[in-house]
Structure formats: structure tokens, C-alpha cells
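pls design
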């Protein structure tokens, strides 16, 4: 027998959870179901490298308890992947054969980690809780850990592996965090990573993998690495197959308008699976960060409830701690920005670089060192604020005063 709900949400992470909260903030009568392939309460993917590295307990990953869904009156279909979508009949089919009808649908199915063609016992990705559990077991007792791909998964995990572990990082580009920070910030971070004992293999890649008890990696440059485990951190691929087979418009992600609506009027998308407008450039993009997913989940929910709410566009917004240093990136942080302003304290290591448009408005910022002002820069970009001046870069007191003048 087919079950029917006013709203069905696919995806139990940032976008889906924010949509649930928003729906219940405005209505207790709308019937809502949550579908997700993982059979557990919502958890933070951002914290999984900390759990794997022993910096936090597994229980601290969970955003809500198992009683959250009952409290909010949500029907849960957890542990059941959505395998087929009939958009015109408003019908979703799950892997166990369950059919679910919906009035409106939010696809917040996220993305999957890119893997390697070669698989072996010690080769891992980190995207789901089961991945984190497996990595946590493998890391215990490991003498050597290798990661390929210098992004927001590989480097944090290597950082948390500990100084007693031999750590290798293999990247195809000529610098670390190449998709996250500009070359100047990348050089500062690389210096710190090397000082902490990271062995860096730039402009290189793994061409062969063998071994049983330990992995033997052959690199394109002819180097050889013997390691206990290999983490593949080569980015993610949005989970668009369901939407594509249903006839929704898909490019890199599911195409959405300013109301997070897809090409079908009753189907919305949010988070890492959704392709929408970048706030600064206006170009279609997938930001792939927690805050964007939360914002899009809220906009989608409001529009599903009948409110007419437009999303101004997403912003890059990443904060992490690697090798003992905090790093935050907000907005547009490329060196082709019309102008930049930089400040660096050689004693504290605190670095700030602000990116400006042709009218001297703040469009982005990179922060290394203490990053409590990341939210401040986010607001400066969102409000299209004029750059307050060089003194703004040199202390949180002047930054707070500048923001107060802008408010």
C-alpha cells in the first residue's frame, strides 16, 4: 500500500534537517516524511575527520537524537535509499519496494566521494558514517597514512593522524588547498604543513597500487610509498541520478531557480546536489558547504509552504583546523579579483586577505590563524559592504566597530 505525505524530503543532513525545522516552525499539520539511505539520526560530516583522528567521540557527531523525529511528528524511512522517482505521478520508490506518494518533494541527497578504479582493503573514502567507522579502525595502529587530493577531507585527516604517524599527501596540482584558497595563502599553509612533518608529493599521482599487509603505491614521478592506508580525497559527485532518470534538468547538479525549485514545479533541491546561483558572480555553482545547504533548505521549505522567498545566491564558506592552524574562507577568493588587501603578523602567524570588486566592495576573505571573524566577513560580503580600510585587517576591535557602522 502506498503511503502519501504532503512533503517528502530525501536527505537527512544539513539541507534536509533545516527544511524539517522550518516546516515545523510554521506548520504542525503538514505531513512530512524523511527518506535517507543511512539508518541513523542526522550527524555532522564536517566532524568526521575529528572522530577518525580521535579528537572527538563518535556520539558527538550526531546533531539530534533518535527522538527528534517523533518530537517533530516526522515519519522516518531511514536506511532505505530512493531508487526511482515518477515526477508526474508524484511517487517515490524505495529500495525495499516501498512506494511513497508526495504533494511536494525536496531532494537534498548530497553527493558521493570520488573513488579510485583500483580497490583494496586499505583504500578508503570519507563521506558517510560507515566510512568514518572504517577509517577510525584502520587508523588505530597505522604507522603510515597516505592521502591523495589536497582538499577539505584529506588534509584534516592527515592532520589528526598525529605526529608519530608518517604522513604523505599526493596532489596533482602545484599547491595545497588549490580549490579552497589563493596561492599566497596556500604557500603559508604549505610551510606550516611541512614543518609538522607532512611529506608532500606535488604534481604527482598514483599510477599503481599493490600489496597485501601494507599498500605499495607507485607514483607517476617514479617515487614509491609503502603505507598502511590510503584516503582518496578527490572531491565529490552530486547524487543526481534519481533526478536525471526522472527527467529533471541536470547539469553538474540538479538545476534550481532562485526559490530552490527544479524544472518540476513541485520538486525542490538543496545542498550538495543542487546547482544554483553564486551570490558574487551570478554564475551557476554547487558550493558544497554546510551553511549553503542550511540556507537552501530553509528557502526550499518556505516556498513549499507557500511563502514566496527568493535566495540571493550561495557563498563559499569553509572553516577548518589543520595541523594546529585555523583556516577560514568566505566568498570569492581568487587572484583575478580587481583588488586585494593583505595583512600578516609574523609573530602570531595571523593572516588576512580581503578580495574586492571594482567598486571596492568586499567579495571575499581568507583567514589563517584565529578565525572568529569569519562570520563578520560573511556579513560584509552579504551586505555588499565597502571595504572599511587597511586598519580593519589588524584587530577584532576595529572590525566590530566597522561592522557596527555598516549595520
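designed seq:
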Amino acid at each position: 500500500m502506498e503511503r502519501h505525505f504532503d512533503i517528502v524530503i530525501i536527505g537527512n543532513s544539513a539541507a534536509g534537517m533545516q527544511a524539517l525545522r522550518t516546516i515545523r516552525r510554521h506548520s504542525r499539520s503538514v505531513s512530512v516524511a524523511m527518506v535517507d539511505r543511512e539508518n541513523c539520526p542526522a550527524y555532522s560530516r564536517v566532524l568526521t575527520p575529528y572522530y577518525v583522528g580521535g579528537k572527538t567521540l563518535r556520539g558527538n557527531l550526531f546533531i539530534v537524537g533518535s527522538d527528534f523525529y517523533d518530537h517533530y511528528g516526522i515519519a522516518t524511512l531511514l536506511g532505505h535509499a530512493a531508487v526511482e522517482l515518477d515526477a508526474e505521478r508524484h511517487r517515490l520508490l524505495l529500495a525495499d519496494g516501498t512506494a511513497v506518494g508526495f504533494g511536494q518533494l525536496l531532494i537534498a541527497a548530497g553527493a558521493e566521494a570520488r573513488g579510485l578504479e583500483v580497490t583494496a582493503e586499505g583504500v578508503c573514502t570519507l563521506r558517510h558514517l560507515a566510512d568514518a567507522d572504517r577509517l577510525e579502525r584502520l587508523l588505530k595502529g597505522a604507522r603510515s597514512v597516505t592521502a591523495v587530493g589536497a582538499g577539505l577531507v584529506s588534509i584534516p585527516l592527515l592532520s589528526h593522524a598525529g605526529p608519530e604517524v608518517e604522513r604523505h599527501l599526493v596532489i596533482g596540482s602545484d599547491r595545497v588547498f588549490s580549490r579552497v584558497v589563493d596561492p599566497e595563502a596556500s604557500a603559508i599553509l604549505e610551510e606550516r604543513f611541512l614543518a609538522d612533518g607532512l611529506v608532500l608529493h606535488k604534481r604527482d599521482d598514483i599510477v599503481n597500487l599493490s600489496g597485501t599487509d601494507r599498500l605499495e603505491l607507485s607514483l607517476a614521478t617514479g617515487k614509491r610509498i609503502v603505507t598502511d592506508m590510503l584516503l582518496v580525497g578527490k572531491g565529490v559527485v552530486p547524487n543526481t541520478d534519481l533526478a536525471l532518470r526522472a527527467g529533471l534538468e541536470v547539469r553538474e547538479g540538479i538545476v534550481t531557480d532562485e526559490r530552490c525549485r527544479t524544472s518540476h514545479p513541485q520538486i525542490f533541491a538543496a545542498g550538495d546536489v543542487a546547482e544554483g546561483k553564486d551570490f558574487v558572480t551570478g554564475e551557476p555553482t554547487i558550493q558544497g558547504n554546510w551553511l549553503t545547504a542550511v540556507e537552501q533548505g530553509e528557502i526550499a521549505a518556505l516556498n513549499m509552504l507557500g511563502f514566496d522567498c527568493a535566495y540571493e545566491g550561495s557563498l563559499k564558506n569553509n572553516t577548518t583546523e589543520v595541523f594546529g592552524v585555523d583556516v577560514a574562507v568566505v566568498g570569492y577568493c581568487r587572484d583575478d579579483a580587481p583588488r586585494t588587501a593583505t595583512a600578516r603578523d609574523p609573530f602570531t602567524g595571523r593572516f588576512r586577505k580581503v578580495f574586492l570588486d571594482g567598486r571596492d566592495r568586499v567579495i571575499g576573505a581568507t583567514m589563517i590563524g584565529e578565525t572568529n571573524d569569519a562570520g563578520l566577513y560573511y556579513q560584509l560580503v552579504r551586505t555588499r559592504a565597502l571595504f572599511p580600510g587597511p586598519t580593519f585587517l589588524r584587530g577584532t576591535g576595529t572590525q566590530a566597530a566597522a561592522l557596527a557602522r555598516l549595520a
